[in-house]
Structures are given as structure tokens and as C-alpha cells.
């Protein structure tokens, strides 16, 4: 059914998105339609992320889609970075607008304007905001979930009294929200590090990133957190009176993660039979499948569904017995439901059902009265196994090298890891010319450096989506 | 602090939105910024609505913000209705677009296009979709929450095999989702009825509505549910092969409710001291206020906050003792927190705290160990009392009249109710010229008619937001 991954990974990706009914291309080039199966997984992601964002103290708000063009021009690097990607509204209500407005590509500028209004004293800081929204960045080479002209995301924007406070918060989000979510919910063992000056967000002084390894060995930037220094505070006059009575500029941060994470989950865990959704991220964790019709079978399947639901499992019943069983099994595999419990007359005659775990394809007959416990345990094991498998793959496909040339060569099949001192700006240029980028810098022990000038840093180089 | 409602209701509305920090005007005319206090209430609304929409069987999905201009033209009434309100993107990625795209004012057209792709057999019906999204309708006379150029909403879109199925579903949403939510969560006793032909949605064959009475006696349309007949099915070829093998056009519905409901909640329940948020809709149901500093006071307040939270109350602690108590009390009133528990050294010396209920301003001293039960009971009472109060006001301010002239006169201070046979198309024209509209038609017993030609119908006439 699906193109095998080894044959053509990008085509496999397209196939699985179409056949698992996750998304479609929209009519305007580069836009996408997120279908119910895909959107339900996104809702799970939003729930988990939103809880972590709130636990980190940020409050949700909503800022306008339309931003006056002049706002973007106030921060020089920012406008330079985003100008090529803007969608511009020139007409509204049947008339040409006196000033064109851009559809937000991100909201630092408009939120900066309101931070300046709302902040007057050190008592108003930190100001910790987040919004769930759509943004538009015109894409020349769109790919569903990974690069689309419109995508859904959360963008956090905070203002602080000191640089140290801003840095600590940008990193708190990086670790407590993003890393925790990606590792424990998406089962993606991201490498967390610092972007080089060249890879920084337009307008940032520091960009932190979380990089995931996909099934073909390429990298995907899964989320970023930025220190914006005082750049936007200057551009929008975000000032406060300090405890001592002076006027000070605030220090701001921004951080985002998007529907791109859906693409990352697909490409990290999917196999030749379709998706493998980690149970924590799954909208459907278990499906109870009626193999064949029959009063006892149907009644048992319904009871089992209810028992699983009572045990806190997100479960659905598949009783479409007029559709061949084989087709329904293939569909469940495609959609990556972590666990399937097959209830059929033959097994049931012996008091059994069959437990099928998606991540490893195992089929286990087991007594009906053990089914709930077995499903709960299988979900736990599946979550851990997917993470372990992805971590092992990442380690096996990360080559320790010592020169940029070796790194470029190794970036065909995976990542390369080498001393940042062996790369530098010149080496980064050379790699870029071959389509290889510095994904991030970390310290030797895996922690995140404060500067790219720290001695002993390690660089990860790879081809990326 | 606030302009009294009796003096200038629209100014009171603006004041309360500013001072309770619910929203600000955005920089592009007609847009709004929803601040954390306002957005937290919207999140409560979304949670409650979303649960009801899912219980009614609809699934969430996401369709693109940008719609090709040509899509809108396929349904003649639809394009005529929305053309004056469109925002048009003419440039993307630095180039002029070959076909301009509109920013969705609503999504019947683009969703119709995909329904046509996804529906092929009667087995695919009903197709029940919903999305949470932003939409843009250029507004000449914007007013925060009520009429904004961009707003947040849910829009449901469904396709059915028969007209009867479509009608039943449009009504299920009307009653089980909208009416239930508005009455039981927002405590707004809406009148549920049918729009006249003139007030129908552009492209609909039947429009159902829920009308709330605001504090000044005007009406606010709080939500609508539409039967679209086969209009969009024809325009987008939403066809299915029937059980008998023939090709049939589907019957579609759409239904929406928006951030406008926030405006309705403010204007229905607010008083001269600020908001009164019904406990079911409140993001903050109770605030534990530390009157003055002191070790025992702080420890007690923290314990009480935890106990209330454990009891399922959405509670915050106000321990900002460096801000004068009076100012914090005024702020809590402004924000409409349903219950305030004041913990101060004097009361506490006698083992007491003070319970303040926002809806009626009552202050009751009570023993600390009864506080949790008292808060829970007070929330229950406040919810019921706000609904009763709003229902009484609606009944008292609805005049039974018998002519259109009387209805126009009565519409200064409230609503008018009269036989639809005494209005008709001519009477509707006459009322419209005086700024009075037919809000809806109901049967004598309050149920929703199938047609405006049914005998014995009652018309509600009013001025409206």
C-alpha cells in the first residue's frame, strides 16, 4: 500500500499522510487541510503543551492576525528576515487600504506594542504571555506539516526586568515545556542546544533549539526558544520604572512550536505499515475490533470498550462488520493506534481475545478478564519502547567525526558530531554550500552553552527538513 | 470608577472591558486584543462548547485561512452577502498573486470543496465537522467582542443524505449545544427561534437563532444554526451514491458561535461595579484575599486556597498585601469573580473568615471550617440566581403588543412580542426603517417552527447589537 521508506522516504511520508487521512493540500498553494484524524492528535499535543506552558506561569491571550506593515520595519533584522515570506492584504471592505497590512508571520511586533502599554513598573514584570494561533509564511517549496504557508502554533512572548531573568525563562520553556513534552509525550529524544549566529531567529540575540532525528537520518527543528535581548524593547519602547526609580528597557523572549511537530512524530516513528503514534500523544490509544458479527461478540466488545474507557484509556469500538476485517486491520495499522484488541467468536469460545501491539506487531492471545490490565501495560511499554528505539537509532546514526568534510559525508545517512572549534564560521559556510547545516551547539556533557565562544563545544551537523 | 449603566450603557461597556482588562483595540481598525483575563473566560467557553459539539458527534478539523476568490462566487447569494466584508490578499512572498485570495469570512465554500472529495457513498454520511478558527469580516462600525473585523469562533459544517437528517442535526446543535451552553453555562435565558427570510444567512434556506436580552433591553444574536438545503452541495458537487445506486446531492448545514458571546455575557450580567461572571463560565470562581499581612493569615489563606482547589473550585490567592485592600476588592468586583473569601487578622482571631458573593454583594462572616462548603454552595446559588434574574428581566421587559407601531415604540426599552401575522414582510420593512428588527419567530408554546408560514407564530421585535 505505502511506498517503502527505504525506497523513497518523502513519498512514503506523502502516502502515509494521505492514507491515514491526516491531511490534504489546500486549494491555495502551500496551505493544508488538517483532517479529523490528524487534528485529534494535534489536540492532544495542544492539551499537553498548554498545561506545561501554564505550569511555567504564562497566560494565554490573543493578538490580531493583521499587523500594520510599519510595525515590522521597526526592527531591522526582523523585517529583513520575514519580508520575503509575507502575505499582504491591500483591500478590505471593498476599498484599497491606506496602509497595507501583513498577515502575521509571528507576533513579536504587535505584542511588543502592547507590552509597552501594559508594562510601567518593575511590579508588572515578568509579563508572561502565550497565544495559540495561525500564522502565514509564504512557502516556495511547501510540504504538509513541515513547511506550509499557513500553520498552527503557539507563540510565547515574555518581558523581564533583567537579561538573567529573560535567559532563565527562555531556558525554562526550552526544558520544562518543550523538551519534557517532546521526550515524554512524543517519544522523540531531541538534542537540545544553541543555534549558531547564522541560524538565529531574525531579531534574536540567542536562539535555543530542539532537534529530532527523523527515520531517514535527517534533522527536524521541533521547536525554538529565543532571547531577544533589548531589540524589541527598543523598537517598541517596552520600558519600566525600576525599584530605584530609573527608567529601564525590558528584556524579552519569544518561543514557538507548531503543527510541524505532527510531521516530526510521523517521520520519527512511522514504519512501512503506517503511523506509530506514541500512546501519550494518541487521540485513540486502543481500538476494540469486532472480528465477526455475533451477539456475544458485540456485547463483549462493548463491555470491554467501556471497561477500558473507565480505566482511563482513550478507546474506540470498531464494529463495522460489513467492512472486511483485513481492511479494518490495515486501516488501524495505518492510523497507528498503539493497541488493538480483536474480539472474535473463535477466541471468545475459549474465553480469549487477541492483543495486537502496533509498535512491534506482536499478537498475543489472552484471557478476556486480563484484557484491561494488559492494554494498560502495553501502552506503557509502547511509549517507552518507541523512545528507546528512537534514541538507539539517533545514537547509531550520529557519527563522531573531526573535520567538516567528514561531517558533510556522514550527513548523507545521519548526523555528524564534531568539535565546534573544527567548524567555525568558515566550516559552516562550506557545509551550507553542500546543503548541510549546523543544527546546534551543545557542551560536551549535553547541556546548553551560554555563548558559542565557550571552549569545548560540540556541533551537530546534518541535512534537515 | 465606571460610567453607570443607566447613564450611558455603551460607555459602561467600554469602561468595564478596559478596567477589567478583558480586551484592547488592535492597531488595525476593527481588530481586538483579547487580554489574559478575557481569554481565560473564552477558554472556559471553548471547553464547554467543544465537549457538547463532540457529544453531538462532530469531529474537529482545520481548513485554510485563505480561500480562492473564485470559490465564493460559486454560490450567488453567499458571495453577494459577504463581498462587502472581505479582506483580500493580493501579494504573497514578494509577488503579486495570479488569483487574489480572500481571508475566510466563513468556510462553507472551502469545506464544501473537501466534502465533495471525501463523500462518495451514503456510507460516508453524515459527515460532521467543526473547526475552531479566526475569521475576518471588515467592519465599518466595530465594537469589541460584538462586531470586530477579526473574531474567534467555531464553525460547524455537516453533510447529510436527506433534508430531514440535515434539519434534525441543525436543530440538535441549536438545542443540545447552543441553548444548553447559553442557559446552563452563560446563565443567559435565550429565546430560540427561526429567522425571517430577510434575516437569513447568505446561502441558507433556514436560519435558526438564539437571542439574548442585554442589560439595556437590546437583543444580541448569540449563535446561529443554518440549513443550507442543497445550495452548497450544488455549487461544490457534494454528491453520494445512494443505497439504491443512484447519484444524489447531499444536504448541508452550518452553525457558528463566537467571541461575541463574551460581549453577551458582559452585557447580560454586568452591573455598575463591573462584571458578574456566572460561576460555570468563570476561569476564576473564587479568590482568597489576604486582608493584611501576618504569618497566621497567610498560612490560613494558603490552606484555604488548597482546600478549595481540592474541592474542584477554580480558585486563586490574592496575597498582594503591598497593594491597598480596598483597591484589590474593587478589582475583584470589576473582574466579576463570583466569590471572594477575605482572610484577615481580626476575623481570624474569632476563627472566622468573610464570604463575599459578587452577584448580590452580600458579606457573610462564617467559621473557617465551613468555608469550603459555603463557597461551593454560594457558587451554585450564584449560577441559579443570575439566570433567574436575567429571565425575570427579559420577561418584565418584553411587551405584549398587537401592532408594528406599538412594537417599534416598545423597542426603546426592551423587546416586543406580537403575532407574526400582524407583521409580515411589510411590517418588517417598516420596523427596519426605524432600526428595529424581527429577531426571530417562535410558535406560541416557544418551540421552533418549520416554516414562517405556519399559522399562529409569534414574532420578537427589538433593537439589536
Automatic annotation (TrEMBL), chains A, B:
One of its GO terms (molecular function) is proline-tRNA ligase activity. Residues 29-278 form the Aminoacyl-transfer RNA synthetases class-II family profile domain. It holds the Pfam family tRNA-synt_2b. Its EC number is 6.1.1.15. GO terms for biological process: prolyl-tRNA aminoacylation. It is found in: Cytoplasm. Keywords: Aminoacyl-tRNA synthetase, ATP-binding, Cytoplasm, Ligase, Nucleotide-binding, Protein biosynthesis. It catalyses: tRNA(Pro) + L-proline + ATP = L-prolyl-tRNA(Pro) + AMP + diphosphate. The keyword Transport does not apply. SUPFAM superfamilies: Class II aaRS ABD-related, Class II aaRS and biotin synthetases. GO terms for cellular component: aminoacyl-tRNA synthetase multienzyme complex; cytoplasm. It is an enzyme of class 6 (ligase). Transmembrane segments: none annotated. CDD domains: ProRS_core_arch_euk. Belongs to the class-II aminoacyl-tRNA synthetase family. ProS type 3 subfamily. Consists of three domains: the N-terminal catalytic domain, the anticodon-binding domain and the C-terminal extension. Catalyzes the attachment of proline to tRNA(Pro) in a two-step reaction: proline is first activated by ATP to form Pro-AMP and then transferred to the acceptor end of tRNA(Pro). Homodimer. This is Proline--tRNA ligase. It comes from Virgisporangium ochraceum.
Amino acid at each position: 500500500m505505502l511506498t517503502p521508506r527505504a525506497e523513497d522516504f518523502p513519498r512514503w511520508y506523502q502516502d502515509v499522510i494521505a492514507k491515514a487521512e491526516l491531511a490534504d493540500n489546500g486549494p491555495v498553494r502551500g496551505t493544508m487541510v488538517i483532517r479529523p484524524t490528524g487534528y485529534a492528535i494535534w489536540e492532544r499535543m495542544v492539551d499537553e503543551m498548554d498545561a506545561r506552558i501554564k505550569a511555567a506561569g504564562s497566560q494565554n491571550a490573543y493578538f490580531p492576525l493583521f499587523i500594520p506593515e510599519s510595525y515590522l520595519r521597526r526592527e531591522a533584522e526582523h523585517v529583513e528576515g520575514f519580508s520575503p515570506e509575507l502575505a499582504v492584504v491591500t483591500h478590505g471592505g471593498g476599498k484599497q487600504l491606506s496602509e497595507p497590512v501583513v498577515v502575521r508571520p509571528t507576533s513579536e511586533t504587535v505584542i511588543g506594542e502592547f507590552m509597552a502599554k501594559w508594562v510601567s513598573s518593575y511590579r508588572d514584570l515578568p509579563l508572561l504571555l502565550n497565544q495559540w494561533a495561525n500564522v502565514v509564511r509564504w512557502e516556495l517549496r511547501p510540504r504538509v506539516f513541515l513547511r506550509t504557508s499557513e500553520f498552527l502554533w503557539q507563540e510565547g512572548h515574555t518581558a523581564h526586568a533583567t537579561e538573567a531573568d529573560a535567559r532563565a525563562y527562555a531556558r525554562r520553556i526550552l526544558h520544562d515545556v518543550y523538551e519534557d513534552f517532546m521526550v515524554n509525550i512524543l517519544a522523540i529524544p531531541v538534542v537540545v542546544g544553541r543555534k549558531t549566529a547564522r541560524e538565529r531567529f531574525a531579531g534574536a540575540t540567542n536562539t535555543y533549539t530542539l532537534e529530532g532525528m527523523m527515520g531517514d537520518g535527517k534533522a527536524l527543528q521541533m521547536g525554538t526558544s529565543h532571547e531577544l535581548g533589548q531589540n524589541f524593547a527598543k523598537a517598541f519602547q517596552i520600558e519600566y520604572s525600576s525599584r530605584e526609580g530609573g527608567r529601564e528597557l525590558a528584556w524579552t523572549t519569544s518561543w514557538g512550536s507548531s503543527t510541524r511537530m505532527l510531521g516530526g512524530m510521523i517521520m520519527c516513528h512511522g514504519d512501512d505499515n503506517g503511523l506509530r503514534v506514541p500512546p501519550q500523544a494518541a487521540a485513540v490509544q486502543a481500538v476494540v475490533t469486532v472480528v465477526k458479527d455475533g451477539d456475544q461478540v458485540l456485547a463483549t466488545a462493548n463491555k470491554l470498550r467501556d471497561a477500558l474507557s473507565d480505566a482511563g484509556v482513550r478507546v474506540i469500538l470498531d464494529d463495522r462488520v460489513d467492512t472486511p476485517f483485513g481492511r479494518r486491520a490495515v486501516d488501524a495499522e495505518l492510523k497507528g493506534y498503539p493497541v488493538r484488541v480483536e474480539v472474535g467468536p473463535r477466541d471468545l469460545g475459549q474465553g480469549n481475545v487477541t492483543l495486537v501491539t502496533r509498535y512491534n506487531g506482536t499478537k498475543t492471545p489472552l484471557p478476556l478478564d486480563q484484557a484491561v490490565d494488559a492494554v494498560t501495560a502495553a501502552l506503557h511499554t509502547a511509549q517507552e519502547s518507541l523512545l528507546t528505539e528512537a534514541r538507539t537509532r539517533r545514537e547509531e546514526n550520529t557519527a563522531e567525526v573531526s573535520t567538516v568534510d567528514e561531517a558533510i559525508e556522514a550527513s548523507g545517512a545521519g548526523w555528524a558530531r564534531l568539535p565546534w572549534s573544527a567548524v567555525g564560521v568558515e566550516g559552516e559556510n562550506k557545509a551550507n554550500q553542500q546543503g548541510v547545516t549546523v543544527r546546534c551547539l551543545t557542551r560536551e556533557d549535553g547541556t546548553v552553552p551560554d555563548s558559542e565562544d565557550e571552549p569545548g563545544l560540540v556541533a551537530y551537523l546534518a541535512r534537515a527538513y
